[in-house]
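Holo prediction — P-hydroxybenzoic acid.
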Amino acid sequence: MLKVIKKTALLVAALTVSAMVSAQPVKIGVVAEFSGPFADYGTQIHNGMKTYLKMNGDTFGGRKIEIITRDTTGPAPEVAKRLAQELITRDNVDILAGFGLTPNALAVAPIDAEAKKPMVIMNAATSVITTRSPYIVRVSHTLPQDTQPIAQWAWKNGIKRAYTLVSDYGPGVDAEGAFIKAFKAAGGQVIDSVRTPLQNPDFAPFLQRIKDSKPEAVFVFLPPGSQTIAFIKGYEERGLKQAGIKLIATGDLTDDGVLQAMGDPTIGLITSFHYSAAHDSPENKAFIKAYAEVNGTKYRPNFMACAGYDGMAAIAEALKKTNGSVDPDKFLAALKGMKLMSPRGPIMIDPETRDIVQTVYIRRVEKVDGQLYNVEFDKFPDVKDPGK
Ligand code: PHB
């Protein structure tokens, strides 16, 4: 009899402990850029995550979401590594997320592989990142994925000789390689390629060289912010446009977050990208409305905000499937092959690569109701990362 009572007491205790564990919040450690020249990256990602929680509640699979943000201050791999380590060992986070810049994501990947934490990349777009830990899932984009369509589009639209200019680090190198490959395969010729520093580049000498070699177009990848603004200014001032040299790029160049600041010189620019604030769908309209309600109107939601929203959606859906478990293998199994209707259109997590499959749109900068927007006019559905 005593034995039975003891057993029952033990069972009740065990059940209580497991109920307490599952009732604890799921902690998401967001490592991103919240200060310095790339401060908008972390802000947009976090704003997007908050928007999802506002629209859908904050409890999934019985677990409440708790977000802890940490600032890398810019491209700072050592800082990102330390922050991720502290989040795992001191704050006991269940999931890592964020990562605007590639160097920060790459620095954290080995720590993540060792700690076995689901890690949701909400921007960093160098192709190789997802191969560096089996627990990484990317909900944003890759540069080869966004670049290939504009290379093909350029050839189809009569551009035969191009020059490339990219930022000299992971995503730039990926964009350069993808453009050269796709443009050459279509029949085009890349006459030369330059890479500019990630921090504080001076574009003047590069623009002069490009002007002197008279290509029909220059293909550009630069991380959005002060340098995309400076580049557009230089392209105008140094007379490349007047010389008839067309500018083509991935949508990083005409990012919704900085487009207004770049002003009218952007009108008519053609880019390829996975998200535009002007995307015409009920999901995007609801997202834009809720984003402003949660975060105010200082920022227009951009592709990083959209990925923050989708990353939060993927985490929420995975928690529902696992009934609140964050066991890394169960959680990854729930994420692999997941399909979501994003503000950008339909997306899927490729079960083999854990990278995103999505539509890439061709867009033109136009004024809509007095504001500059990337207006989509063509699309390439179900694009996988061609970089793998
Ligand atoms: C990156 O660092 O991977 C990165 C940053 C900004 C972009 C795209 C990629 O627009």
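READOUT: The pocket of P-hydroxybenzoic acid is lined by residues 101-102, 123-126, 171, 223-224, 252 (CB under 6 Å).
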